[in-house]
Write a structure and sequence with these properties.
182 residues, mainly alpha, 7 helices, 0% strand, elongated
């Protein structure tokens, strides 16, 4: 579950939330880096990243608990008392993880670090002309509409991926739980 959430989060960050930084790796063309910053400002990336992280922080504990609870409950090798004990431990672990996740998501340097790690990728992937074209798109009415709708689209896409992925993940966890109980 943690792996799938991390993969989803990474995909979201790298496709929908590229970032702008004040410092990029020396190998990137400074003109492209500067143009990338302008494009990402037009995309309101920092705000999008903060919104996405707040949503992830809010949803992850319940999703982690649901996934692990399904594996515990599906474990035919455990008695009801053992399952109850595991559920109690799970609730304690989820609470501790939520506190730790909050510390990570609340870190004021998190967005800056993500920005610093991704700007070079975009600067090396696109030419100066392409960055300028993308900036023109993101500052256009349709680009602004896309940006305005992106949080809703991403939230719904995340919910869809969870709805489709979770039953499959729960089957794997249940099978692994049964194998471990034997």
């Amino acid at each position: 579950m943690k792996t799938s959430l991390a993969a989803i989060a990474s995909a979201i960050l790298f496709t929908c939330a590229p970032a702008f930084s004040q410092a990029a790796a020396p190998s990137a063309d400074p003109a492209v880096v500067n143009a990338t910053r302008q494009m990402l400002e037009a995309m309101k990336v920092r705000e999008s990243m903060r919104t996405m992280m707040a949503t992830m922080e809010q949803q992850m504990p319940a999703q982690m608990r649901a996934s692990a609870a399904a594996a515990i409950n599906a474990n035919a090798g455990m008695t009801a008392a053992q399952k109850a004990e595991q559920m109690k431990k799970l609730d304690e672990a989820v609470a501790a993880n939520a506190t730790q996740m909050h510390a990570v998501f609340a870190d004021p340097t998190l967005v800056d670090e993500m920005v610093n790690e991704t700007v070079t990728l975009y600067a090396e992937t696109y030419t100066l002309d392409e960055i300028r074209q993308l900036t023109a798109f993101y500052t256009s009415p349709v680009g602004q509409k896309m940006q305005a709708n992106m949080p809703k689209l991403m939230a719904r896409s995340f919910a869809i991926s969870q709805r489709v992925l979770m039953p499959r993940m729960q089957k794997i966890m249940a099978a692994n739980g049964q194998a471990a109980g034997k």
